[in-house]
Structure formats: structure tokens, C-alpha cells
Write a structure and sequence with these properties.
about 350 residues
Length: about 350
């Protein structure tokens, strides 16, 4: 569990308002701040600008939130640390997961596909297996969600997904992070006859693409970040599809440490294990243009952004194209917001 023991769900009461639309303002602010450092070669500046902007706007959202996935522990991250209380303190009580920029390296190098992400669910329903940094994952859409099995051979999963989606195997596309650890996986996928789409970073947006039936991606497979897996599960809980993951220790020392902390390395986590409520909300804004979202585009005195907003109970996914006027935003928002924007310009 990733929340204090006394943090129980909201007495079974559903969250009536669509907080996802409010979360879009959060990811928009983070994306616009981060995008000012596009291609400048410093991923730390990208991350810091996004964290500052995200934390500021989260503070104005009507909620009693606790960060369960953030920038690290309190002594490692002065802002958006795990356990930090965020929001204005009013109901509802919620868990919050943030990734100010999924793809800081992409942004720093001026590459496509970076997004800013926030997810939120009823207090006590967001669970992050923290004992391992990485997890082995498989993701697909609603049409094939009941046929995948992380413990089955790669070729078998591809065959099952192809059958469920009424496709031929050579028509199946599997997205994989381009890492040396995936050499065998890539060989297995290609040997099975499926197509491969390699990405350098950004497996949250890739997981969403795999979960959406209208994209050209049928599956995501491979080893990626644990926290990114939980954020992906929040989006998948909203739009349908399925994610399965299992802890992947990087070495024997990490493996033994995880076992000593009670981690079951054979356990396969499902979407419902990671997000145990339909009262979940997800928002993301493009930082640099990718297959899922357009990136921030500046014009004199403002910027265009593209975002997605999702709600679990309704299954609704909204695409939000916005035009921002910086001069008017400075008059409307707090002095703190203005300072953050000016800091990002320096």
C-alpha cells in the first residue's frame, strides 16, 4: 500500500464532479513551463519548471489530496513529494499521482512524445508497488483485455490478441521501449511475425495508445518504470483495456531487498490491483508533439495546448484544444503563478 493506514476510501461516496477538467489546467501549466526548455539539453530544468507550475496549480484544486506518486520522498524532493498534502483541503479526499513530464529527456533533446500527467482517485484506492523501480508490463485495449497473460510466451500473447481483434499477426503492432534489456523480447516479437514500434522514452502515452482501439498500436510489452505503470493503469481504468505488470529487479541486491520487504515477485498486478476504484480521473497535456498529443505551440503573448481528460465512472475521454493568453492569465492568477512563469522564461 502506498497511503497511510488511516487513509480510507471516501466512505463509499462517489466523486460527483468531473475533476479531470480541473486537472487539465494543472497539466497545461506544467507543459507550458516545461516546453520553454525544449531542445536546450537540460532535463533537470525541464523537470523543475514543470514541477513548480504543477504544484502551484494543484494547490487551487478543490480537494483534500495526498501525493502517492511524486518526485520522490520528502528528503529527496522539496515539492510534490510522496505523502505531501495538496489541494485546498476541502472534500473529496483523494490520492494523487503526478509525472510533471513523462519524457524529460525527450523534451531536453527536442524530441517528440513528451507529456505532462496527473491522475487522481478516491483516497486509499491507488496502489504503487514501491519495492521495485521497474516492472514487466503488457497492455492492450478492451477488445483483447481478457486474453492477455503476462506469464504466457510472447508469441502466444500476440496470437491471442490478433484473434481477439480479428487481425492477422503481421497486422499487429507492439510498442516497446528501445533498451538493451529488450533484445530477447524484440527477437520474440519479430519471430512471432508481429510489427514493432520502438520508442526511446514515454511509456505512459504508449500504454494509452495501446489501450485505445482507434490507434495504430495493438499492444505494449516490456520493462518500464513502476510509477509509470500505475499512471498508465489510471488512464486504462478510464478508457477500458487492461494492463498487467510484475516486479522486475535490476540485480540480485534489489531482488533480495524487495523479497525482504515482502514483495511477491511472482505476483501479476492487474489494472484493478493498481487502481481499485472506478472513481478515477486522468489528465495529460502534450509537451512536445507526439502520436498521442500535439505539443505546446507558442505565439506572441500566448500558447496553444492539446490535452486529454478522462473519467473512470463514465468512461468519457475528452480532447481539449486550448488557446492561452499570458497577459490575461497574469491578471487572473496569483502572484505566485506569475513568478513561476517568469522563472521558466529565464
Amino acid at each position: 500500500m502506498n497511503t497511510p493506514k488511516n487513509n480510507q476510501p471516501n466512505n463509499g461516496q462517489p466523486i460527483e464532479r468531473n475533476i479531470a477538467m480541473e486537472l487539465v489546467r494543472v497539466t497545461e501549466a506544467a507543459a507550458m513551463s516545461a516546453a520553454r526548455f525544449l531542445g536546450k539539453g537540460d532535463k533537470n530544468l525541464v523537470d523543475q519548471a514543470a514541477v513548480n507550475a504543477m504544484r502551484n496549480v494543484l494547490g487551487f484544486v478543490r480537494m483534500d489530496g495526498i501525493v502517492v506518486i511524486g518526485e520522490g520522498e520528502k528528503d529527496e524532493a522539496p515539492m510534490l513529494y510522496i505523502g505531501e498534502k495538496i489541494g485546498d483541503g476541502s472534500e473529496p479526499k483523494v490520492d494523487i499521482a503526478v509525472d510533471p513530464v513523462d519524457g524529460t529527456t525527450l523534451t531536453a533533446k527536442g524530441l517528440p512524445g513528451a507529456i505532462s500527467v496527473v491522475a487522481l482517485s478516491t483516497r486509499g484506492t491507488m496502489h504503487c508497488p514501491r519495492n521495485l523501480v521497474y516492472m514487466n508490463k503488457i497492455v492492450t485495449d478492451a477488445e483483447a483485455k481478457d486474453v492477455i497473460d503476462l506469464d504466457a510466451p510472447v508469441a502466444e500473447n500476440i496470437r491471442r490478441v490478433a484473434a481477439a481483434k480479428h487481425k492477422k499477426i503481421p497486422e499487429i503492432t507492439v510498442v516497446v521501449l528501445d533498451r538493451p534489456r529488450h533484445e530477447k523480447l524484440l527477437n520474440d516479437i519479430r519471430k512471432a511475425g508481429a510489427r514493432v514500434k520502438l520508442i526511446s522514452d514515454g511509456d505512459i502515452s504508449a500504454a494509452i495508445e495501446a489501450a485505445l482501439p482507434e490507434t495504430d498500436v495493438d499492444m505494449l510489452m516490456g520493462i518500464g518504470g513502476t510509477t509509470e505503470g500505475v499512471l498508465s493503469a489510471a488512464a486504462i481504468r478510464c478508457v477500458g483495456g487492461a494492463i498487467q505488470c510484475k516486479g522486475w529487479p535490476r540485480d540480485e541486491k534489489e531482488k533480495q531487498a524487495a523479497i525482504e520487504k515482502g514483495e511477491d515477485l511472482k505476483k501479476v498486478y492487474t489494472t484493478e490491483d493498481l487502481i481499485s476504484s472506478d472513481d478515477v480521473f486522468f489528465a495529460a497535456t502534450g509537451v512536445s508533439t507526439g502520436d498521442l498529443l500535439k505539443g505546446v505551440r507558442y505565439f506572441s503573448g500566448g500558447a496553444f495546448t492539446q490535452s486529454i481528460a478522462m473519467r473512470g465512472r463514465s468512461g468519457t475521454m475528452r480532447w481539449v484544444d486550448a488557446r492561452h493568453n499570458f497577459n490575461k492569465l497574469e491578471k487572473l492568477d496569483s502572484e505566485k503563478y506569475v513568478k513561476e512563469r517568469h522563472w521558466a522564461q529565464e
